[in-house]
Every structure is written in structure tokens, then in C-alpha cells.
Design goal:
rod-shaped; 8-stranded mixed beta sheet; binds magnesium ion; Rossmann fold; 4-stranded antiparallel beta sheet; 19 helices; alpha/beta; 44% helix; binds adenosine-5'-diphosphate; 3 domains
Length: 466
């Protein structure tokens, strides 16, 4: 995997990484707090034999083997019982002593470990003399010669100020490393099993057709869908205007100016995008007709606060003339044709001869005609509408549209030989004012390259006019 792609994935999935990091560090912190502190203190003693005066001069010398035996004795009751007695402890309570033999001399390092720093110090200092006392029981030759072992202090134990465990720095450090490793692992795993479209690359992998625009996810669009009008300088309006400009290049290649807007499934933002695109086009002075071609779930009129009961189907039924039912949008150059009453046979109606004639008549009076439509996967209405228009725009909802559904929609369009003019990636999560979480593709990526070769400069300055 290229490093850049890795970074892109990490940025996109920073939540799971942060969560795993916090969780593991939290556990490490809890373990650190809950672990009872343990202290150690070490005393060094020199063990020698001591013969009674006037005894045989062939004094026994402590061997390395003896010293190793004494280290073992530290664990036996022969040592622990008298130690407990001396320290005033119940046997085996809270302190243990371990020994280490020096490589070069009869020096023993005696390390006491326990939960009480004072106690471990006393235990380490008491261990040497005590060991010397019991030593002769484990060196028969020594006892035979009537010799004793003495322990000479080399360095006494000092009271430790810090515990040896838990070690907060080590525990938290390990927690950070482990948390990051788990988080990155989960992020890569989720990426591998991700079934949703997240970014332009995912769309490119399904269809070679250009991305005409990326529209940011803005929570306020739910209550205030007409973002181009209510917040003309915001990121949403800006992205719609960029889409408008890119459509001009599609226009050049198709030679037409009528578009049907669809998507693979409901709820991807067809209606919202179409209305705002129409507003942006009208805002640039073009005469625009917005038609609600979604005769199954019409929502253009309700979204815009217009009368929805009369419209396209009313004309098709012969009950009204276009001029009677087309509604003006304020004082702008935008006209809206709502769906009218919901018919029982939308597909038949959209594919009918009167519909073709009506559409032909309507388009002549406008610079642009945009038709909202139902989604492709469940119904074929958009294909029928596409026969009337010059181009088909496919809206894809970032983080929402399933790759499977988009693939299915693209394939059904290919089967009936309907070319997709381009995609609009809607609901793109923005990571900040100037970029999104996919590392700056937003706005100026390689999308629309096919449709708008060499137009980057124009697209950057697309706010002025269409
Ligand atoms: N870019 C966006 N950011 C936030 N919400 C959006 C965006 N685009 C659409 N929505 C919301 O998503 C919902 C579905 O949008 P809609 O246009 O009705 O989808 P469709 O026509 O494809 O069924 C609506 O509530 C709409 O306000
Ligand atoms: Mg809709």
C-alpha cells in the first residue's frame, strides 16, 4: 500500500484509532493505579568463615557451591521463618528475599521485595546476618570444624523512595504503542471490508465517468435545504456553483442543456442537489426550468415551499397548460414544474408520447432544464427521463451509498446504453474549512478532468458567472 494511501486511510479512520488509543491507555492507567506498589531494597554482604581461637588452622573456606546453596536457602522456611520472627511478621507476609552471588568474590546481593519500603529495607539488612546464622546447617564440613559464618556489611540497604512496580511511564508507553497498533489494525481491517462509497477513488473504481463536483455534508441542509439561497457564500453554495461550471463542459460535449439528476438509492440528495443547482444556474442569469420527475415520491415542491398538487401530471392529463402550472421562484429566472398528482403508472407516463412532446416544447424556452427523478436501482424512470434529456447526473452520497448499489446502478445504465455524464459526490465530510478528511481532494481533485480538461483556473473562480 502506498504511503499516501495509508495516510489517507488513517485520516479517514482517525476515530477508531483515537478510540482504541484512549481505551488501551485507559486500561493501562487503571492497571497502574490498581496495582499495589512494590518496593525493593538491596544489601550487599561479604560472607566469611570464622574459626574459634586456638582451633585447627585448616579453616574451611566457603565455596561458590555453598553460596549458591545459601541463595536457595533464602526461599526455605529455614530462613523465612526466623526472618518473619525477627521482623515481627506472620510467616511469609508481604516480603521476600532473593540473593545473587557475585562472579568474583564471596559477596552476596540480598534483595528484599514487598509493599512496605521500611519493611523491605529492614528485611534486606537483616537477611545477611540471619543467613550467616543458618549457613552452618547447610555446610556440614563447616559445622564439623566448629566454624561459623559471619556476614560483613559491604553496603547496607537504603529505604527506597519510588516503587519498582507499577512503572507508570512504561505502562502508559506500552499502552500508547499497543493502542496505536490495535487502532491502525482495526482501521485497515475496516477499510478492507468497507462496503460504502467514501471518496472519489471509490467512484472511479466503479465507473470511469468524471466526478463533476463534491458537495459537503452540512447538517443545516436538513432544515434549510436551499443552501445556495440562504447561505450564498458558504461552502455548500460554493460547491454547487463549481458543479454548475463543470456541467458547462458536459454541455459542450453533449450539445445540450437538459439534465436528469438521479442516484442509485433514495435519500442520497438528488432533490436537494437538483434544486440548489437550479438556483445557482438561475443566480447566474440563466433561464432555468426545474421539473420534478420523481412521480413516485415527489418532493421538489414541498422542499421549496411551493404548491405540489398541480404540475407535470396535470398537464399530461390535459387538465392544464404549462403556463398555468409552472411556478415562478420569486423574482428570479427559475421556473418550477412540480410533479402534480401521483399517478398509478409513473413509468408509462414518463415514457409516453405526450411526455416527449411536452418536454420538447418546454425545453425550447429555457437555457437549462433540470429534472429530478427517482433512484435507479428500484425503478427505471430515470432511464426514461434520460431519453428526453441530454445528460444524466448521478448523485452519490459519501459514507452512505453502498458500492454494491452504485455498481448495480452503473451496470443497469450500461445495459440500456445510457451514458452517465458525471457523478456528484454529495455529503462529503469536511475535515476543516479548507480541506476534507481525504487529504485535500475536496474541490480541486482530479475529478472532472475528463469533462473539464485544463479548466482548473476557471473552476477555482467559478463563483462569478456561469
Ligand atoms: N450535502 C448535504 N448535507 C446534508 N444533508 C443533505 C445534503 N444533501 C441532502 N441532504 C439531506 O438528505 C436528505 C435526503 O435528501 P434528498 O435530496 O431528499 O434525497 P433524494 O432526493 O435522493 O431522496 C434530506 O433531508 C436532505 O436535506
Ligand atoms: Mg428526491
Amino acid at each position: 500500500m502506498p504511503f499516501r494511501e495509508f495516510i489517507t486511510i488513517m485520516r479517514a479512520r482517525w476515530r477508531v484509532i483515537t478510540l482504541s488509543l484512549l481505551l488501551v491507555v485507559g486500561v493501562a492507567a487503571a492497571v497502574t493505579i490498581l496495582t499495589p506498589p512494590r518496593y525493593t531494597a538491596t544489601a550487599k554482604v561479604y560472607l566469611a568463615t570464622d574459626a574459634p581461637s586456638g582451633a585447627d588452622q585448616s579453616a574451611y573456606v566457603i565455596t561458590r557451591q555453598d553460596l549458591n546453596t545459601y541463595v536457595e536457602v533464602l526461599k526455605s522456611p529455614a530462613f523465612t521463618d526466623p526472618l518473619a520472627e525477627e521482623l515481627d511478621l506472620t510467616a511469609g507476609a508481604g516480603v521476600s528475599v532473593e540473593g545473587e552471588v557475585s562472579e568474583t568474590s564471596n559477596i552476596l546481593s540480598l534483595t528484599a521485595t514487598g509493599s512496605d519500603p521500611e519493611l523491605v529495607t529492614r528485611a534486606a539488612n537483616a537477611a545477611g546476618p540471619l543467613l550467616a546464622t543458618v549457613a552452618k546447617d547447610f555446610s556440614p564440613l563447616l559445622a564439623l570444624n566448629d566454624q561459623t559464618v559471619t556476614a560483613q556489611d559491604i553496603s547496607p540497604a537504603v529505604t527506597p523512595s519510588d516503587p519498582v512496580s507499577p512503572d507508570p511511564v512504561r505502562n502508559i508507553g506500552l499502552g500508547v504503542l499497543l493502542g496505536l497498533a490495535i487502532g491502525i489494525g482495526l482501521a485497515l481491517l475496516r477499510q478492507a471490508v468497507d462496503t460504502r462509497v467514501r471518496r472519489v477513488e471509490d467512484v472511479n473504481a466503479i465507473s470511469p465517468r468524471p466526478i463533476l463536483g463534491e458537495v459537503p455534508l452540512e447538517r443545516q441542509r436538513r432544515d434549510d435545504p436551499l443552501g445556495v439561497e440562504s447561505d450564498p457564500h458558504g461552502g455548500y453554495a460554493e460547491s454547487i456553483r463549481r458543479l454548475r461550471t463543470n456541467l458547462l463542459f458536459v454541455d459542450v460535449t453533449t450539445g445540450g442543456h437538459t439534465f436528469v439528476v438521479t442516484s442509485s438509492m433514495p435519500g442520497e440528495g438528488k432533490t436537494t442537489t437538483t434544486i440548489n443547482l437550479a438556483l445557482a444556474m438561475a443566480g447566474a442569469g440563466s433561464r432555468v426550468l426545474l421539473i420534478d420527475g420523481d412521480l413516485r415520491n415527489p418532493s421538489v415542491a414541498s422542499t421549496m415551499g411551493l404548491e405540489g398538487g398541480i404540475g407535470l401530471t396535470t398537464i399530461l392529463l390535459g387538465r392544464a397548460e404549462p403556463v398555468d402550472v409552472i411556478q415562478k421562484w420569486g423574482s428570479s429566472t427559475l421556473d418550477v414544474l412540480a410533479a402534480g398528482q401521483i399517478p398509478p403508472n409513473p413509468s408509462e407516463l414518463l415514457g409516453s408520447e405526450p411526455m416527449a412532446l411536452l418536454f420538447d416544447k418546454l425545453t425550447r424556452d429555457y437555457d437549462f432544464v433540470l429534472v429530478d427523478s427517482p433512484p435507479i436501482v428500484p425503478v427505471i424512470d430515470a432511464v426514461l427521463l434520460n431519453k428526453l434529456t441530454n445528460g444524466l447526473i448521478m448523485v452519490v452520497a459519501g459514507d452512505r451509498t453502498r458500492k454494491r448499489d452504485l455498481t448495480s446502478a452503473v451496470q443497469s445504465l450500461e445495459t440500456v446504453e445510457v451514458p452517465i455524464s458525471g457523478f456528484v459526490l454529495n455529503m462529503v465530510r469536511t475535515g476543516g474549512p479548507n480541506g476534507n478528511r481525504y487529504g485535500g481532494y475536496y474541490g480541486y481533485g482530479h475529478h472532472a478532468r475528463d469533462a473539464a480538461k485544463g479548466t482548473r483556473g476557471a473552476r477555482k473562480r467559478s463563483t462569478s458567472s456561469i
